Inverse folding.
């Protein structure tokens, strides 16, 4: 294995509160730290942990696609690895959940013969499970990026939980946009969901990004009113299973065992 | 709000390595601390953090219905809350994923007028995302408990990753000490999946790393060979997408989008 390594970590969504101890150690001891985080306080905290820290935010340029920005970030991270340094790249949330440059950098470093690893972090979906009291195991859970959900016409089980990421930016990332307003796109989403749920079905708009001591933003509405909801670009949409979520426990398993 | 409070936290899967500062703080400052973890090393570490530490593991007994054990745990946790104490309970992984007593204790405490919070932890699914390079933001991700998946005939999208939990314990409700709880269940699962995926479709039997020096177990196997694979009660099955999804032209038009 060549000298030089890459560790990709996540910082969660509560400044320093949700970073795992292993990730914190990697951030602190890296020769070079790159980061892309939600807010300035997290950035400040990271700079305090490691003086060799550099933000990757400048690669997001208005009008340039996320993919292009991601390539540019990877091009910024890898030269340090090639110089033989132990490099850490830190991202908000979980680095493997909807963070393109994180996985791209790991794959690239490995293909060039360097040691590269990804360490799990607390994702927005983890925060959602905790804050909304949802156990994804009870009825099962499907997670889709909202645009992908619509455009690929994803199949799902309406008796299970459904999580739609990036509900506020339908159509913005992978596709070239013509002029259809955000409310109209949410209306299309609501129409598609109404094929499986009643218009009165409760849906929850959830924003995991909250600076302590503020609680995350939880907005309960119905499918019919979804187009009027306050949905921002980081919002996650949670659609509870049809028939509500009574705590049923493990009774189903008992049936199998008796058979 | 009444005196007494409950905080439920997760410790992740690597002894102390995946614990978060907010969870640690809550464990250390609790007036009464309970825990339920998977291994003795994590238990030992937790015992050093808070002198009131008490395991909930002894609520499990061989042959006893798991739900009875869980309800007993909830009662044990709530008793000191009702006495006005600040109580913290730690579970391994994420305390809200695949853990019944955590959600139930929070619900019960709130319904009785106490402040109750759950802090997220690193779940086995988070470890899988990192170890197998699966990004739910790209092609989505569907997860089901394996018994529930079979019994309820869950609908899913074969063009998206599928994750099935507890594949070693299909149809088992009692606590057992054997390594693999049900091989018959594994055969049943394989035949269900064969209706959607070809026999040679490569699936992965996955176990998150338990200790810092041990790597995770990543065992690729053709679907048809799954019943013979080495599966334990903590194994998870990862089924990669059968094919890539293609964008629907009419939906693109409805959204005012065209392919990039």
């Amino acid at each position: 294995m060549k000298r030089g390594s890459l560790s990709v970590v996540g910082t969660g969504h509560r400044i320093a509160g949700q970073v795992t101890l292993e990730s914190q150690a990697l951030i602190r001891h890296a020769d070079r730290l790159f980061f892309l985080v939600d807010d300035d306080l997290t950035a400040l905290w990271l700079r305090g942990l490691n003086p060799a820290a550099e933000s990757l935010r400048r690669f997001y340029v208005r009008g340039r696609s996320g993919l292009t920005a991601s390539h540019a970030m990877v091009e910024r991270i890898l030269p340090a690895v090639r110089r033989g340094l132990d490099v850490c790249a830190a991202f908000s949330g979980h680095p493997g959940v909807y963070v393109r440059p994180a996985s791209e950098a790991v794959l690239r470093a490995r293909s060039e013969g360097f040691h590269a690893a990804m360490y799990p972090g607390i994702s927005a979906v983890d925060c959602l499970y905790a804050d909304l009291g949802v156990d994804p195991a009870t009825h099962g859970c499907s997670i889709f990026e909202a645009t992908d959900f619509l455009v690929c016409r994803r199949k799902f089980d309406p008796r299970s939980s459904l999580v739609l990421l990036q509900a506020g930016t339908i159509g913005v990332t992978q596709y070239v946009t013509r002029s259809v307003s955000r409310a109209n796109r949410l209306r299309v989403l609501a129409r598609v969901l109404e094929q499986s749920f009643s218009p009165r079905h409760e849906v929850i708009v959830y924003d995991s990004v909250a600076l302590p001591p503020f609680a995350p933003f939880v907005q309960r509405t119905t499918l019919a009113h979804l187009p009027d909801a306050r949905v921002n670009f980081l919002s996650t949409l949670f659609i509870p299973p049809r028939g509500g979520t009574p705590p049923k426990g493990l009774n189903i398993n008992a049936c199998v065992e008796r058979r | 709000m009444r005196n007494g409070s409950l905080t439920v936290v997760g410790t992740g899967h690597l002894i102390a390595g995946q614990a978060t500062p907010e969870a640690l703080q809550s464990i250390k400052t609790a007036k009464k601390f309970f825990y339920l973890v998977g291994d003795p090393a994590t238990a030992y570490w937790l015992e050093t953090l808070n002198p009131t530490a008490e395991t909930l593991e002894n609520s499990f007994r061989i042959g006893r219905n798991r739900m009875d054990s869980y309800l007993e745990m909830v009662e044990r946790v709530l008793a000191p809350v009702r006495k006005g104490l600040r109580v913290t309970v730690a579970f391994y992984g994420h305390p809200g994923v695949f853990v019944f007593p955590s959600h139930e204790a929070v619900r019960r405490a709130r319904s009785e007028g106490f402040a109750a919070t759950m802090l997220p932890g690193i779940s086995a699914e988070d470890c899988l995302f990192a170890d197998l390079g699966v990004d739910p933001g790209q092609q989505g991700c569907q997860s089901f408990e394996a018994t529930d998946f079979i019994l309820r005939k869950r609908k899913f999208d074969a063009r998206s990753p599928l994750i099935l939990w507890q594949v070693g314990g299909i149809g088992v409700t009692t606590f057992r000490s054997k390594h693999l709880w049900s091989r018959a269940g594994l055969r049943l699962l394989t035949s269900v999946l064969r209706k959607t995926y070809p026999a040679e479709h490569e699936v992965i039997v996955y176990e998150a790393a338990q200790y810092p020096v041990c790597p995770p177990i990543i065992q690729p196997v053709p679907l048809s060979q799954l019943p013979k694979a080495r599966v334990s009660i903590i194994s998870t099955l990862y089924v990669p997408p059968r094919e890539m999804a293609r964008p629907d032209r009419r939906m693109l038009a409805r959204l005012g989008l065209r392919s990039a």
Q: What stands out?
A: Chain A touches chain B through 82 residues (CB under 8 Å). The two ends of chain A are 54 Å apart (CA to CA). The longest strand of chain A covers residues 5-10.
